[in-house]
Fold each of these.
Amino acid sequence: MSRNIVLGVTGGIAAYKAAALASLLVKNGYTVQAVMTKGGESMLGPATLAAITGRTVPDSEFNPDYVARIPHIELARFADVVAVAPATANFLAKAACGIADDLLTSLLLPTAAPLLLAPAMNPHMWNHPTVQHNVEILRRRGVYMVGPATGRTACGEEGAGRMSEPEQIMEAIEDILTPKDLTGLKLVVSAGPTHEYIDPVRYITNPSSGRMGIAIARAARRRGARVHLVMGPVGLPAPWGVSCSEVVTVEEMQAAVNEAGEDAAAIIMAAAVGDFKVETVRRHKSKKIGGPEIISFIPTTDILAELGRNKNNRVLVGFAAETQDLLNNAAAKVAKKNLDFIVANDISLPGSGFAGDTNQVSILDASGQVERLEMMSKYRLAGHILDRVAALIRQKSAS
Ligand code: CTP
């Protein structure tokens, strides 16, 4: 995927955050070319952005030292996204009118790249009818906006005007670059562990971090799906734009998955659901006097197997975490739970499984095909899983 970003920096106090944004983008594999207005340069040194991005910051459209022959045209062609952060009221006005009196405003006219603006200014300026009118013109023209956030601005006033945080701006850039092949579809994803209580202060669980399910939910939303995440206790927030039910026990997870899954095109069970619960949950904390007690467990409901029995036209995806005989165990689960495919990983391998940001899996489908994938980030793996889900949904709706 091409990932060239022209990062425009105009003269707002939030320009200092543009350095953090540039750094975040570079760390995530983007090639970033900073372009600063005169106002931007008085707020943040071009040398800072040049050092972070590894690319000279052209200081004028007509600077003969800058390598490009016709800078505004070359930058217009180079960009996959033009992101301006911060975008001042003055910049919004120029962009709305097509004024091209410096390198940044000049490259906006010849570029075919989408434009993303992160406005930042005093709340009264933001609410001024002229600014709002300009924003409206830009929006109608298909310009993307992120923020401004509400809070305390640098001038000491409360209101809308703070520039969005770098993470949110990068999220918006990634959104723009992601094809929306899941638009119109609802997906339900489960994530994390469950807790089954023994008494009011003790429970049994497993070390699932929830990161795989969260990565799938995030990637699916980005691809245009309406996503509902059913999340066990992981202490992590749901991704932006994803609705979420926070649950604790298997019973709660089942109720939430079933309710949200009724009109879903696909249900992806990435949660590590507990297989057993305590037969009788103690009403009070067990005391150590009297010695350890014997606890009886009874099976929980298998949420996915139940869904498999009432599958209708939905795509069902399971996960299998195994420590031995990976492929046979996983294949048996595909058949037993009536799944379209299962994502199987050997959790005893380094870099694979519950903790961490990577996973190494094999995907087994209902026809017995096995695809072995290399070790990759959970987010990239989410993309592979969703490619399959998208193809299966298309297949099912065509048949
Ligand atoms: N699963 C579920 N409900 C359960 C147990 C598991 O929905 N009570 C789902 C998991 O979310 C996962 C798949 O079933 O997608 C396989 O889970 P796993 O724990 O690997 O398999 P089990 O069927 O529980 O079998 P075992 O623990 O014996 O390997």
Amino acid sequence: MKNFSDLSKNLKQSAIRSVSLRCAELGGVNLGQGLCDIPVHADIKQAAKVAIENNKNLYAPHQGIADLRMKLVQKIKNFNHIQIQSEREILISHGSTGAFVACLKSLFNPGDEVILFEPFYGYHKSLLELSGVAVRAVPISLDDFILDIDLLEKTISSATKGLVICTPCNPSGKVFTKEELITLGRIAQKHGLYVITDEIYEYITYPGFQHVSLASLEDFSDFTITISGFSKTYNVTGWRVGYAYGPEAIIQQMSLVHDLLYICPPTPLQHALSEALLLDEAYYTQMREKFLHKRDLMLSSLRALGFPMPTPEGAYYLMMNGKALGIKDDLSFSHRLLEEAKVATVPGRAFYLNPADGAGLVRLCYALEDIKLEEALHHIREVFS
Ligand code: PLP
């Protein structure tokens, strides 16, 4: 047999899958995978059934159904403070991941460079590499979440064509401030970079922190592609519906690519999610309250055991550091948590270009029912106190 392609041959199954399998064998609590087990709102489930019953089962228009795009124009105006001029500026995609892939294929050539902030979301890095794009990373310290602008400027080269921002950030929980985004937008403008902002956790922010979209600031919408989706806000990760918006020419190009790759995201589910956009403010407030409670439960319990960790400002992940307890290695930390405490986590190296930079760290997802979080904390206490 001939060789696999150069771009795919080094792909490895993510550690999350093997850790999840082992966790299931042990009957443990899986805080590794970014999954949420909070029930889907009844109106959304009902709308999906109705859409299938009403025969909304065929291919959708390649940019997505008109009703959902029209409702998104309103949502983007009211929530993101961005005025979309035409529905041609929005693409409904196969999850936000489908939008990200279509964006990479539309904007970058093999050999181009794109900058990520570390710790990064692993799919961003891996999908860039699968497109032949060279990934550069600028670290953000977990001690204070402060951006190193000098380092960013030094990392930009003549080959740099784009910057990826994830806010609120998976895995760190950082929410980029308006001031930081203005600084980043001006740098991108100065160097003629595209900015892709992944805002999938935009509704999950904690008191004192507000989600700001880069494209709502100055004239940054000229070069910004904003990506979001329904997976996290409505807890429908398996439905595979997301969206992107930005300059019409870019969205049109992405739509062509997306059509070839995926044809369309599931039609009945686009109809159901159109209903989701009608939910009132209380839905979002309650969701934030739930996650705030879970965040504080995890933070106070784990800090009491001596694990330092930054306070997440948004999203539903924690980066826990074992160094204070003499744990230097991320793999052995994660292994111990799994084998002794029966709690699955993701080793820190998954979020850094250089595995050594993730030393001592693991990521936990706290989007599970409280009873499971309590069980995980109970086992962690047994092993580490
Ligand atoms: N972006 C980030 C930052 C994520 O954490 C995830 C899932 O964990 C995704 C995108 C995937 O989103 P989707 O289900 O819309 O493809």
Amino acid sequence: MINKVQRLIKKSTNVVIFTGAGMSRESGIRTFRGEEGLWKQYKPEQLSSITGLQAQPELVWDWYKKRLITGEGVIPHRGYDALTHLQKLKGSLPVITQNVDGLHRLSGQTDVLELHGSMRTASCLVKCGFSTELTTDLLGSMPPHCPWCGNILRPDIVLFGEPLPAEVISRSYELADNCDLMLVIGTSVQVWPAAGIPFAALDNGATVIEINPAGTELPCNENVISVRRKAGEILPLLVGLKE
Ligand code: APR
């Protein structure tokens, strides 16, 4: 199986990467679903929605502060290095991610499409135009307020109930419609419209290599190769990244 996947990656000319929270698990960032998932402990509609932020800004910002602190100083694991290595080998390797942790960019990958935004910045909830880098020192007083209009700030991630950035989602589907191989790494493929991207690749006749220790919503057919391994363990092997 490994040799077959290595050969596929090597010979494919239009490879696209699609990742979810599991891609960052070996860097110490929790996933949302599964045994130790964040949604087992917290309610997404309360903490990751516009209505939740408006109703309980302190609670929501306290949660994001915890995630920000967890994310500070996080080092992208060898699986990220493997994708950076593959991007150099291929010359072009678009990376579509559902993650907001910024680890793809931090590990040197370019052409990264962040479907759900990123925790790098925060902006004014009522869109007065203020925006700033999101660091823990911005969160001295909670919840953080806009210095221009006094309303609360929001992290620049896509909250439940909000549309995904139009240009990012349309380019992501365009990439899926035209790739010959998609590596789907660390995602339960459950949250639409992002979850439709691997299916769009399959619909165009591409092969999908799924890297995930657990099963997902992807179909079991001849175009899906499931590698039931952890991203950090197997990606360096699959792309030939030497120790
Ligand atoms: N390597 C690869 N996959 C892993 C690893 C690992 N080391 N550890 C866990 N996984 C897999 C899990 O088996 C699971 O299928 O990662 C997947 C994570 O799934 P989710 O927690 O559902 O995360 P994701 O698919 O990214 O969720 C999509 O849901 O809550 C929203 O906005 C949030 O972007 C997120 C979206």
